Amino acid sequence: MVDLNTYLIIGAILFSLGMFGVITRRNGVAVLMGVELILNAANVNFVAFARFGGMDLTGHVFSLFVIILAAAEAAVALAIILNIFNNLGTVNIDEANQLKQ
Amino acid sequence: MGNIQSISYFIPELIVTATVLVAVVADLFTSTRKVHKIGYLVIGGLAIAAFALWLSSPEDSSTLFLGTIVIDPFSRIFKFIFLLATIVAVMMSLNSDELNSVRTGEYYALMAAMVLGMSLMASSVDLIMIYLSIEVVSIVSFILAGYLRTQVRSNEAALKYVIYGAFSSGLMLYGLSLLYGLTGTTKVLELGSAVAALGPGSDLPLTAATILIMAGFGYKVAVVPFHFWTPDVYEGAPTPVTAYLSVAPKAAGFALLIRFFNSVFGEEQPLNGAVWEAIEGVPWQDILMVLAAVTMTVGNLIAIQQDNIKRLLAYSSIAHAGYILMAVPVLSQEGIYAIIFYIIVYLFMQLGAFFLAIVVSNRYETENIDDYSGIGWKSPYIGFFMAIFMFSLTGIPPTAGFIGKMYLFAALINGGSQFYWLAIVGVLNSVISLYYYMRVIKVMYFEGEREKDLYRPVGASAAIILATGIPSIIFGIRWSFLADWVNSSLKFFVSGF
């Protein structure tokens, strides 16, 4: 039986995996993938609430906006990581440490 | 109000949008030698937008675009703040050697795009719009921070900014999704009553949602523990961008924070004179009070150890965010009044201090405070105004910073006995900040040789210094004009669609 709780649990698992990825990964691209997981966890929540919560379409609309913004953000983030790679020859965020901690 | 009728109330934002588009296109037809003209074009466009905003009725108050944003006196004063800060920042950029080494056409267009995002932040009343406007501002700031793309420092600043930014906006989004699930609406104005109607069984998810949303807002205004990006980004980014980021998006973050928390978690709708109360079960006032205390303490304690003027100002801007945050949980007209007043004086003193750092780095090629020795004698003009800004940032009379802090503390004391401890922490922190601000003055006047170089900034540089320095003094002596204006802006749009 697939109901709201199932989707919320999937969302929570995605969220936790995303958090885990952001915190443990040192590769810039992998960190971004973690962020995408977090965003998609929220998307699952939005759509599930809108579908099963007896609410209007706002949740669906919200998730569409999130997808668009995630794409824009990923484009900018990848451009920045590409710059780092051009200048440092690595995408490891630990090696970008010229600024004092 | 429907989409078509809304347009006539949206003219300042439309002018800003047109400015962005014209600047992007004009950049294509401008040779690199003349690219600074795009900067003047953007200043002109923003000035026209400010004029259009001035012409709009200050008492207008309604929702626009099917209830996604509002116009009200509260958002109006913030739009003026954003336009002013951006115009000053563009002028600063035009006078920065650092930025003039690269082609800056898009840079100015992006600055104008920031204004649009921040205006929407200050006026959005729909969760979708809140997320959208925060992201517009964030994505543009990432690009601005990394604008010097051949410099590793600038790249690194942008990388740290984008990772922390994307992460915290993801957390906020998850919090928003929980809030939507609990209440079934994304309209901030309806959320208040929907949250109040929830039973005690919803306390846990509601608290989780509050904390997650706080992560997104906290990142924008750089409060502890979401502040880790601040020093590195501020040091690595081009100095005019640093100055801008430490003022304008922070002000926008506070506008959003105040509107959101007061509308959603305040029991009474924030009408004039009404008593606001926090919703039971969600300890958001306590969360904010602790965050404010920790933020200013951490900011000040780390600022003491800094030798780089940009890092010093970066950490001190964390402390200032803490001072401003003190007045948010008070939930009174007086608190919001103090916040807006402080943001305005902070704008002048922070932008001024950063601009002097740019002037010094253009002339003496240093950002190190120890190298400021003797500048007070070498160039009395820089020394004098730097001293003014440092006094004002500390909050010593008769400067504007003193009046701003006075209002903040008064709001806390009048707010009730539960805020007294926060006021005491705030005063202690001002004393700590005295130490590192005075160090700059000490180095400028009491160290090094008193040789006479008599360097005096001229032209646009002098104009910016005067434009930020004079208000920093004037508002410390006669602030009734500013006080009246802020007082008339303390109205939110509350209800009725």
Considering the chains and any ligands shown, give keywords for the structure:
heterodimer; A: 101 residues; mainly alpha; Helix Hairpins; elongated; B: 497 residues; 2 strands; 71% helix; globular
Written description of the protein model:
The complex is a heterodimer of chains A (101) and B (497). Chain A is mainly alpha-helical. Chain A has one domain: Helix Hairpins (Orthogonal Bundle). Helices cover 76% and strands 0% of the residues of chain A. Chain A has three helices and no strands. Chain A is elongated, with a radius of gyration of 17 Å. Chain B has 497 residues and is an all-alpha fold. Chain B has one domain. In chain B, strands 1-2 form a two-stranded antiparallel ribbon. The longest helix of chain B has 32 residues. Chain B is globular, with a radius of gyration of 22 Å. Chain B starts with a helix and ends in a 10-residue tail after the last helix. About 1% of the residues of chain B have low confidence. Chains A and B meet through helix 1, helix 2 and helix 3 of A and helix 6, helix 7 and helix 10 of B.
Please give the structural blueprint:
The complex is a heterodimer of chains A (101) and B (497).
Chain A: H1 4-24, H2 28-52, H3 58-88
Helix pairs in contact in A: 1-2, 2-3
Chain B: H1 3-6, H2 11-28, H3 36-55, E1 62-64, E2 69-71, H4 73-94, H5 105-123, H6 127-145, H7 152-183, H8 188-196, H9 203-221, H10 229-236, H11 239-245, H12 248-265, H13 284-304, H14 309-326, H15 333-364, H16 375-378, H17 380-394, H18 400-415, H19 420-446, H20 459-477, H21 480-487
Antiparallel strand pairs in B: 1-2
Kindly report the greatest chain-chain contact and the residue count on each side: A-B, 45 and 43 residues
Main β-sheet description of chain B: 2 strands, antiparallel
Profile the largest sheet of chain A: none
Strand content of chain B: under 5%
Instruction: State the assembly state of the protein chains.
Output: heterodimer
Overall, the morphology of chain B is globular
Strands side by side in the biggest sheet of chain B: 1-2
Architecture of chain A, according to CATH?
Answer: Orthogonal Bundle
Structural class of chain B: mainly alpha
